[in-house]
Design brief:
Layout: H1 24-32, H2 40-45, H3 60-71, H4 73-99
Helix pairs in contact: 3-4
Bound molecules: iron/sulfur cluster.
Iron/sulfur cluster (SF4) binds near residues 42 and 45.
């Protein structure tokens, strides 16, 4: 298979992300030189959506969430509220556990 056509502009491929995982080389082999259609970053960028700097090629589920959120902004608000609620519950539990 040919390498991904995005490689020149891709921060992951060019080791420009703030955090590069130890598995970056293997990911490049699998996605950049292998099957770009399975790459989370590729899936997001071909939708015309800005790719988060911390999105790695193997995070396809997260890429799908990003794409869904971009297509349906109301869903993103709901999703953000759910995350805040979950964080609040975790924080509340942690405070409770600390009191024991
Ligand atoms: S396959 Fe993904 S990580 Fe690799 S160059 Fe293309 S967009 Fe970037």
């Amino acid at each position: 298979m040919a390498e991904c056509e995005r490689f020149k502009a891709c921060p992951f491929f060019n080791d420009q992300l703030a955090y590069m995982p130890q598995t970056a080389h293997a990911m490049k082999q699998k996605y950049c030189y292998g099957d770009k259609t399975q790459c989370a970053r590729y899936l997001v960028v071909i939708e015309g959506i800005a790719v988060p700097g911390n999105l790695f090629p193997n995070q396809v589920e997260r890429a799908r969430e990003i794409i869904c959120d971009a297509r349906n902004p109301a869903r993103k608000v709901f999703s953000d509220e759910k995350k805040q609620h979950a964080e609040s519950r975790r924080s509340h539990k942690a405070r409770g556990a600390g009191a024991l």
